[in-house]
Write a structure and sequence with these properties.
Blueprint: E1 2-8, E2 14-20, E3 28-32, H1 35-62, H2 65-75, H3 84-97, H4 107-119, E4 121-123, E5 142-144, H5 147-166, H6 194-204, H7 208-220, H8 224-228, E6 235-236, E7 241-244, E8 253-256, H9 259-270, H10 292-301, H11 311-322, H12 327-334, H13 342-351, H14 353-364
Antiparallel strand pairs: 1-2, 2-3, 4-5, 6-7, 7-8
C-alpha cells in the first residue's frame, strides 16, 4: 500500500518520496530526508486509513441497498433537473437488491441482476393503471429491454453508490468499479421521407394543437420536453423567436420560426388559455399537452411505421444537413453538445453520391 522512492537532488542530498494508496481513499504523498521517517509516516497514514475504512465498513453493515435508494430519492432527486429516469429505474433495483446490506453487495451480484434485467420480459401498458391504453379484452404486449435501456438502469444505481461513498460515507468502495456496461446498438437515425412527412402532417392537421406542436418540432429540431416547458413570456410572435430556458444541456437556447410554423403558432396564440402561461397545455389547462396518444394515432393513420416523436428532431437535423448546414450550425440550432451531429452530416454525404457520379463522368468519362 505504501511505496517509497529515493531521489538524489542536484546538491547531492537524498530525498525519500513516499506515497500511500488504499481503495476508497485519495492517495497521500510526502517527502522526507530519511528512509526511516518516510516509513514511520507511511505506517501512521495506513493506520488512519484502516481505522476510517473500519468505520465505513460498520456503516455499510448498518444500511441496506433499499435504505440507500430511499435516501437518494429523498435527498438527491429533488436537486436533479430531470430525475424521471431514476424514478423509473430505481424501484426495480430496490425490489431485486433492496434487502442486501451495503457491506455484502458485490460486483458479481450486480452483474447477475444485470443479466436478469436484460432477459426478463416486461409490459409497457399496465392493465391496472389509470392511464392505461388497453381496452377491455386486450392483452398487454411484452418486450425485452435493449442494451441502452439496461445501461440507463445501471447508471441510476451506480450514482446511488457514488453518492453513498463520497457524500454519506456509507461505503468505502463502489461495487460498480467491477461492472461494465453493455455494448449498445447503432445510434437511431430514423427520419421521415417526403411522402411520409406529407401524410403525417395531413393527419396531424385534424388536431390543431397537435399539428402546431408537430410542425414547430419539425421546423426547429427542438425536443418535446423543451416545447412542453415553453411559456408565452418567452415567445416573440412579432420576431418569430422562441426562448427555451430549460433544455437537456441546461443551457438556454433560441429558436426561430418561419412561414407555416409561425403562422400556426399565431393561430394557437389566438385560442390560448389565459389561466396558464404554458404554450402547449392540456385542454383543462392543468399540466402539459399529452401528445403521445394522439401522435401515435396520427402515425398509424398516415401509415408511418417505426416512428417516434423524437424522430422529428432527427428529420429536421437530416434535412438541415442536406441543405448544407455545418456541424457548428447544427449545434447552435439543436443544442447538441456531443459529436452526435456528425451522423446527420454523414447522411447528407450519402445524398451526394449522385453529384459525385456526375462530376466523375464529366471529368473522367464513363
Amino acid at each position: 500500500m505504501a511505496s517509497i522512492r529515493e531521489r538524489k537532488k542536484a546538491d547531492g542530498t537524498r530525498v525519500f518520496n513516499v506515497q500511500v494508496r488504499m481503495i476508497g481513499f485519495p492517495a497521500r504523498t510526502a517527502s522526507f530526508r530519511s528512509n526511516k521517517a518516510a516509513k514511520a509516516w507511511a505506517t501512521t497514514i495506513e493506520a488512519q486509513m484502516i481505522e476510517g475504512k473500519h468505520f465505513r465498513n460498520a456503516e455499510a453493515r448498518r444500511h441496506t441497498v433499499a435504505e440507500a435508494i430511499d435516501r437518494y430519492v429523498l435527498e438527491e432527486l429533488p436537486r436533479k433537473r430531470n430525475g424521471n429516469m431514476h424514478r423509473a429505474t430505481l424501484p426495480w433495483w430496490k425490489e431485486q437488491l433492496g434487502r442486501i446490506k451495503l457491506a455484502d453487495i458485490s460486483a458479481a451480484s450486480i452483474v447477475e441482476a444485470r443479466g436478469k434485467l436484460e432477459r426478463e420480459p416486461y409490459q409497457r401498458a399496465k392493465p391496472n393503471s389509470k392511464r392505461t391504453s388497453l381496452k377491455d379484452g386486450d392483452v398487454a404486449r411484452t418486450f425485452k429491454r435493449t442494451s441502452s435501456t439496461v445501461n440507463r438502469y445501471l447508471a441510476s444505481l451506480a450514482h446511488v453508490f457514488t453518492v453513498a461513498r463520497k457524500e454519506w460515507h456509507w461505503i468505502a468502495h463502489n461495487p460498480f468499479d467491477g461492472v461494465s456496461k453493455l455494448g449498445e446498438n447503432k445510434t437511431r437515425t430514423r427520419h421521415l421521407s417526403d411522402d411520409e412527412r406529407t401524410r403525417l402532417l395531413k393527419e396531424s392537421a385534424n388536431d390543431p394543437a397537435l399539428h402546431c406542436f408537430v410542425v414547430i418540432a419539425l421546423s426547429t429540431a427542438c425536443r418535446a420536453g423543451e416545447l412542453l416547458k415553453l411559456t408565452w413570456p418567452d415567445v416573440n410572435l412579432k420576431e418569430g423567436q422562441l426562448l427555451f430556458r430549460e433544455t437537456k444541456n441546461a443551457e438556454p437556447r433560441t429558436a426561430w420560426l418561419h412561414g407555416e410554423a409561425l403562422r400556426l403558432l399565431k393561430e394557437h396564440a389566438r385560442v390560448r388559455r389565459i389561466d396558464t402561461d404554458q404554450v402547449f397545455c392540456n385542454p383543462s389547462g392543468r399540466g402539459p399537452l399529452d401528445y403521445n396518444k394522439s401522435f401515435r394515432a396520427a402515425c398509424v393513420a398516415a401509415k408511418v411505421e417505426g416512428f417516434r416523436f423524437h424522430d422529428l428532431r432527427h428529420t429536421a437535423a437530416t434535412e438541415l444537413a442536406r441543405m448544407g448546414a455545418t456541424e457548428q450550425q447544427l449545434r447552435a440550432i439543436g443544442g447538441w453538445k456531443s459529436g452526435v451531429v456528425s451522423r446527420y452530416v454523414h447522411l447528407a454525404a450519402n445524398d451526394a453520391k449522385e453529384v459525385l457520379a456526375k462530376m466523375n463522368k464529366k471529368i473522367l468519362g464513363t
